[in-house]
Amino acid sequence: MHARLGYDPVGDEYKVLCVVIFDGHERDTTAEIKQEHHVYSLGSHSGWREAQITTEKSYTDVEGGICINGAIYYGVGPTKIARFDLRYEKVTFIEAPKDYYTSWSLINHQGKLGGMQYDNYLYELRVWIQEKQKLWNKMSCVAPCEWRDLYKDKRPSSPGEIHTGEVMFVSDRLQSSRPFSVFYCDVIQESFRSAQVKGIADYEFRRTHGIGMHDLDMLCFPGYTENIMSLWP
After folding, report:
1. Which domain of life, per UniProt (predicted)?
2. Which tens digits make up the pLDDT trace of 163-195?
3. Buried-state track 4-25, b at ≥16 Cβ within 10 A, e below 16
């Protein structure tokens, strides 16, 4: 079961897409893997409903998820990306580039679907931007030495782009032995910068929140805006 949140700007609605995957092979070796797509509109009080999606494409993976201009995108395999139209509640599939990897992080690049990957062997940052349905623009640049030392044995996480068009990178692990830093990269300008977030990995933070000295998983979100407006009528 995989849930994704999206916003339909035409209908001014927030909707949740829930993809439920049934693996029939556990009971019947001849059964096919299939999906159900359920939709919930926030504030409607109408409950969940099953979207009547007619597609012959079956998939077993739901990787990532990002909402861009009224559509939710998520990876569904080594060569496909699914696009769920929030207004019409239909699923279509996009052919990924030939060098597409499931370890992509999907990003919103100035209103266009994009994907990025950091190669920690070649120390190279790669970004793909969808210009048309089957046309992708690829850009790459070499990461600075500071990144090479930080991400030598692990892959950084990219939660997406910020308002300046820079791709945001963070470590997906909080280590007590290192300060927590956020890195930004502009692939077009091939520029890099970083900012250290103080007060997260130190002893006082851990003591106050009851956190031990072990490494912890980190989740980061770009473009955070605080708004007390209720989504419920």
Report:
1. Eukaryota
2. 788 888 777 767 666 677 788 888 888 888 888
3. bebbbeeeebbbbbbbeeeeee
